Amino acid sequence: MASAALSPPVLIGRSAELAVLDGHFDSARARGAALMLTGEAGVGKTALLEAAAPRATGAGFRVLRISGCPFQRGVSFSALNQLLQPLAEGIPALPARQAETLQAVRGLSEEQPTELLAIANAVHALLERSTAEAGPLALIVDDVAWVDRPSATVLGTLARALRTGPIALLGASRTGDESFLSNIGIPEHEVRPLDDVSANALVAERFPAMTPRVRRRLVAEARGNPLALLELPVPLNDLQQRERGTLPAVLPLTERLKGIFSTRVAALPAATRKLLLLAVLDGSGELHILQRVSGGPDGLAGLSPAERAGLVQVDGVTGRLEFRHPLTRSAVLDLSTSEERRAAQLALAAELPEGSEHRARHLADAAVGPDDQVAALLHEVAYNTLRRGDAVGAITTLLRASELSATGTDKGRRLAEAACLGANITGDLRNVRALLDNADHADPSGVDSLAAATAAASHLLNGEGDVDTAHRLLIGAIEAHTWPDETEMVEDIFREALNTLLMVCFYGGRPELWHSFEDVVKRRRPPTSGRLLPVILGTFGDPAYGALPFLDRLDHLISGLHQQPDPVRVFGIALSSSYIDRLPGCRGALRRIIDDGRDGGAVALAIQAQFLLGNDAYAGGQWDELLEITEEGLAWCATYDYRLTASTGHFQRGLVAAARGDGTAREIADRLVSWGNPRGLGALRVYAAHIRALSALGGADFDAAHRLLRALVTPGEVPRFMPHALWLLLDFTEAAVHTDHHAEAAAHIAAVRRTDIPLVSPRLAMLADAAEAMADPDVIDHDLFEAAIATPGAERWPFDWARICLAYGERLRRAKAGGAARVHLDAALGTFERLGAAPWSARAANELRASGIPVKPLRPVESDGRDRHALLTPQERVAAQLAATGLTNKQIAAQLFLSPRTVAAHLRSVFRKLNVTSRGGLRDALTGPMP
Fold first, then answer.
1. H-assigned helices in 511-663
2. How many Å separate Cα 185 from the centre of its chain?
3. Alpha carbon distance 860, 863 (integer Å)
4. Phi-psi region at 834: left, alpha or beta (left = phi > 0; alpha = psi -120 to 50)
5. How far is CA 687 from the centre of its chain?
6. In the prediction, which pLDDT does 870 show?
């Protein structure tokens, strides 16, 4: 039958194979050619034939299709009739004897088909006539091995005679199957499995909601087999695809996959299948384990049939048993009974020592009902898993432990703990409420437990921003908590409770919340707890007064982050670093957490890690990178309902908008206030004031800036538990000085000097020196200004440094020291322009003009869109120019020392600002002079 496909299907990862097919058709047009595609079952041979048909049509071939069928293999000429049917109109024009022969083959004549050679000659004549009248022919034969024998003989004869005309024969068959195209000397092309990149792309396209970690698991199991890649997700439910449900240790097979992988396993002796089942459930490949379980040195002899069948092999280097294809494991499991699997699990558990994690898991898999002893073992395994950094695995294990719990108390406790870890670590708040409801149903008396209270408080805090209710829940549960024997496991929950309470205090922003936190920690902290907690409290909660004693300890912890597997501890160390300028040392560890979140792991921690990197990017002047980082973090917040956590990302974007003079800064600040004020979220009020004040300072509206900051800062006092005061030091001083509140500025810097702030980091020392120099209205303190500007490593904080240069240049110009002023004003202007801080660039440019230095004014943006180049930041401008020359994002990234993702973000912004949609349009838009 003819193919009528209008456009070729899109195949992922098959460009090389498609090029082979195109070459085959090109060769066949000049002089007939045959080609056989071979490969394992499910590798995509049929898909390539489907893609070949429209490509052949596009190349001018008439396509004829034949498909072998096992049910018609005994029906003579069934396949050949598929070829003759679309050519039937040409049969009467053949010589009478050949026409009669083909009509007999079609069953339209009373005569019986003659010898096969005569039939082959008649078919060949028909094909030659067709090519002469209608052009080249492409014969596409799928499942060649299932073609009936008479048809196969005729087609084999034709394959050897194709060079007499423009006919392309393309067949496909499994590797090792005998067919009419075997051993006749025609070329073969083996279709290989997809590489990992293409396999990932195929699964991502067909199952876009699947998390990367689950996708990688499927890709590893499928070994590039496209059919397996598309079939393995089918038995998985939505929760499993999103890694919110337990993923089977051995993936189940669909019926289509069973037909490929189960047949050879089913043919093995029973003893061999038993050994293979043990190997699958053990998973280690260690032969000594199989030997012990099977009863002695001769027990491994049963593996020989599987080795001879090519299903397993023993690695010559490691000595471990390996399955040649992972899905053979699934077939072994699928062919076993539940009783066989249970017996194998128990046999394996019996060979492992007491306390072994693998033993606990084997016993859990063998359990058929509640078993408190096994549940207790699994409970311990869950927390060991958590400390290794696998929060998702820990929750999965806790849920299984709850299923095995015989009493409602134990079941409810473990469900509550799973909810607690889910809310604080893995991050899907949508599931927390359901877990808590299940825990309450199992044990109504446990609703006030520490785990349940922590989960509920985290849900209230992150979802609704209800700090007061969350605070009451946590304080009450911590006060009522008693320490059982399982101290280490409970301490993990206690740690989550304190972490949640810490964020309640931070976002609440009220001293009384912090004081209650200090009090409860002093009275209720267990003996082994608190090695990191005092560090967090001192450096993050109260850095102005509490950071100094912990700096050496924190620096030591940061130096070991590359070896720290526990993501909760990594986050705690990075959080401790956020206000005291030690985040650069945490970057690698934070990126690991983010990558884990992208893979479907600890999303809640990944969101926090994104925003910690955002803080670091703001201080370091990597503002475009900040926008990229926070865009992803805010998308996660929206997906997982972390509304309060999102405020930090919005704040960071608001700071960049304020510094760049973007009108969205005001909108962001307004949203923070409108959401935070009714909920008593003091941190959001501070965030909004900071954004508004920075906008006002950039626009030289010092009165507005002073009014906003005066509501946060009491001159002469640096309050405890207000970490954000460290970020407002320069802002308040500048606003006070420019509004003639010199006494306030002096009192503020004097109060800062009485704290630990100048000793905490070089940046804060730089800001303290600059603020003190700015606060003196009568004389220019050259020593302090120059010490601040010359701070070692000051280039790491370009915006702060440029502001200090601007302040010094302003004072020098007003003192008629024009030459000295120009040096610092030029430095400030250049830095502000590189950052895209347009209002600050304008301030610096105005000062230079006032000192007699001509500065090219920024060209205005016309209402009709002309001269939009002024909207581009310096990095956007350079990236746009390079892109216009034809460079790829990767090449641009290499030249600018950026990541390709950052370059892509720059170009998206450029396209939007210049109103273009392609690189061709970009070249046109850039033809005018750039600023």
1. 511-524, 533-536, 543-546, 551-559, 567-577, 587-598, 603-619, 623-640, 643-660
2. 49
3. 9
4. alpha
5. 29
6. 62
Distances (CA, A) of 534 to 425, 501, 541, 553, 572: 21, 14, 10, 11, 11
The CA distance from 121 to 702, in Å, is 98
**What pLDDT is stored for residue 874 in this prediction?**
64
pLDDT digits (tens, 9 = 90+) for 548-580: 999 999 999 999 999 998 898 999 999 999 999
What secondary structure does DSSP assign to 467-486, as a single string? HHHHHHHHHHHHHH----S-
Nearest to 309 by CA among 351, 368, 355, 268: 268
The percentage of the chain sitting over the pLDDT mark of 90, rounded to a whole number, equals 47
Query: In the predicted model, is pLDDT for residue 745 greater than 90?
Result: yes
Least confident of 231-240, 367-376, 468-477, 759-768: 231-240
Q: Which of 615, 586, 618 is nearest to 797 (CA)?
A: 618
Q: What is the pLDDT of residues 114-151, one digit of tens each?
A: 688 888 889 999 998 898 888 999 999 988 888 888 88
- Helical spans, DSSP H, in 40-184: 45-58, 78-84, 96-105, 116-134, 149-160
Nearest to 633 by CA among 619, 612, 618: 612
What is the rounded distance in angstroms from the CA atom of residue 500 to the CA atom of residue 8? 55
Judging by DSSP bridges, how do beta strands 137-142 and 321-323 pair with one another? unpaired
**Banded model confidence at residue 490, pLDDT cuts 50, 70, 90:** low
Model confidence pLDDT, tens digit, residues 84-100: 989 999 989 999 888 88
pLDDT at 818: 82
Residues paired with residue 717 on neighbouring β-strands, in sequence order: 714
Task: In whole angstroms, give the CA distance from residue 725 to residue 771.
Answer: 13
* Residue 877 pLDDT: 74
Q: One-letter amino acid identity for 367?
A: A
HSE-CB for 211 with a 13 A CA cutoff: 24
CA-CA distance, 243 to 601, in Å (whole number)? 8
780: left (phi over 0), alpha (psi -120 to 50) or beta: beta
Indicate the burial class of 256 (C-beta count within 10 angstroms; 0-12, 13-18, 19 or more).
middle
Residue 694: predicted pLDDT: 97
Q: Alpha helices of 815-870 — where are they, by DSSP H? A: 818-835, 838-850
Backbone phi, psi, residue 208, to 5°:
-65, -25
Contact 785, 804 (CB under 8 A): yes
Q: What is the pLDDT of residues 687-701, one digit of tens each?
A: 999 999 999 999 999
Type of residue numbered 345: Q
Give SS3 for 740. Answer: coil
* Spatial contact of 145 and 109, defined as CB atoms under 8 Å apart: no
Q: How many CB atoms lie within 10 A of CB 133?
A: 9
- Asked if 217 and 600 count as a contact pair (C-beta separation under 8 A), the reply is no
> What 3-state class would DSSP assign to 659?
helix
Alpha-carbon gap, residue 87 to 1, rounded angstroms: 9
pTM: 0.72
Buried b (16+ CB within 10 A) or exposed e, 738-772: bbebeebbbbbbebbeebbbbebbebbbbbbbbbb
